[in-house]
Amino acid sequence: MQRITLPNSSVSLSRLIYGAWRLADDSDTSIKNVRAKIDAVLAEGITTIDHADIYGNHECEKLFGLALAENKSLRDQMEIVTKCDICMNTDKFPERNVGFYDTSPEYIEKSVTESLRLLQTDVVDTLLLHRPDPFMDAEKTGRALDVLIDSGKVKTIGVSNFKPEDWRWLQKNMHHKLVLNQIEMNVLAKEPFRNGDVSALQNDDIKIMAWSPLAGGEIFGNSAAAQRVMPLLSRVAEAQNTRVDLVAIAWLLAHPANIMPVAGTNNISRINGLSEALNIKIDRHTWFEIWTASDGHPVP
Ligand SMILES: NC(=O)c1ccc[n+]([C@@H]2O[C@H](COP(=O)([O-])OP(=O)(O)OC[C@H]3O[C@@H](n4cnc5c(N)ncnc54)[C@H](OP(=O)(O)O)[C@@H]3O)[C@@H](O)[C@H]2O)c1
């Protein structure tokens, strides 16, 4: 498995990442099954697990932490990414009458402390601000994030769903380097390739993680774009004797920006083999065939 070293840090992540968002949606949320998924992921050489405080209505970190607690050697075999700042209006927080974002130092500190407790670990490898907060006080937020690294609770800090001006404003208020931005990218969600985000991230030496690399399963759906793209993915899969989901992931891996896809399947038979995506060859011509099918019109 290829590894990506995060800028200005000793942390390295696996090129392919496993996302824990859907962990609590599985019909089997037993610790045994969570552990089986962890084992399957690690067997693929995928050592980086992506969490967020809110995943599964705040259940996913807990489920994962219970599996880690059962075998103390597991934690050292992986890097844990988690996120904070989305405050959902759910039954868990009856006092909230609206969803909002909170990047205040008090909230960030509280959220990370709770993530550490639930995950049953003493350090988070990478903490991400989950979404840009329109009410952010960058000076206070930046300082709070720096303090988290200085105190040893978190090794590195990044962002998610941030636009260039959002991450540059935050970075200007921090000593430590923002290491990555996790954004939506897949064969059906290509905007970051053309709106300048992918270039800006490379220019600022911020690594790129792609969430929902299969468009959350929509590539298998009935949308017109999915129906145009799927025959091409199938053609490549057949020619290279592999799976269509892996071809969709390989389309992201083929890009020179060293994108790190975050796969989200709950199905162990689909976790098995994920690392084969790194061996699939997608040349420029094929990459643009898929691009064009997704757009539904030729490049201008
Ligand atoms: N930062 C953010 O704002 C943000 C937002 C969303 C997600 N994320 C991260 O990204 C990760 C991945 O997101 P995602 O789960 O949407 O990823 P994804 O890999 O694009 O989609 C996974 C979904 O596709 C389905 N699927 C996979 N292979 C399939 C197949 N061959 N046929 C039919 N369905 C198939 C899966 O169902 P099965 O489980 O049945 O395989 C699952 O429901 C999340 O876990 C989370 O860590 C981050």
From TrEMBL:
Q: Which domain of life is it from?
A: Bacteria
User: Where along the sequence do coiled-coil regions lie?
Assistant: none
Q: What is its EC number?
A: 1.-.-.-
Which UniProt keywords are present, listed alphabetically? Oxidoreductase
Keyword tRNA-binding present in the record's keywords: the answer is: no
Q: Which PANTHER family match?
A: NADH-SPECIFIC METHYLGLYOXAL REDUCTASE-RELATED, OXIDOREDUCTASE YDHF
- GO terms, molecular function: oxidoreductase activity
Q: What is this protein's name?
A: Aldo/keto reductase family oxidoreductase
> Which organism was this protein described from?
Reinekea marina
Q: What class of enzyme is it?
A: oxidoreductase
Every copy of the NADP-dependent oxidoreductase domain together lies at 15-287
Give the lineage.
Bacteria, Pseudomonadati, Pseudomonadota, Gammaproteobacteria, Oceanospirillales
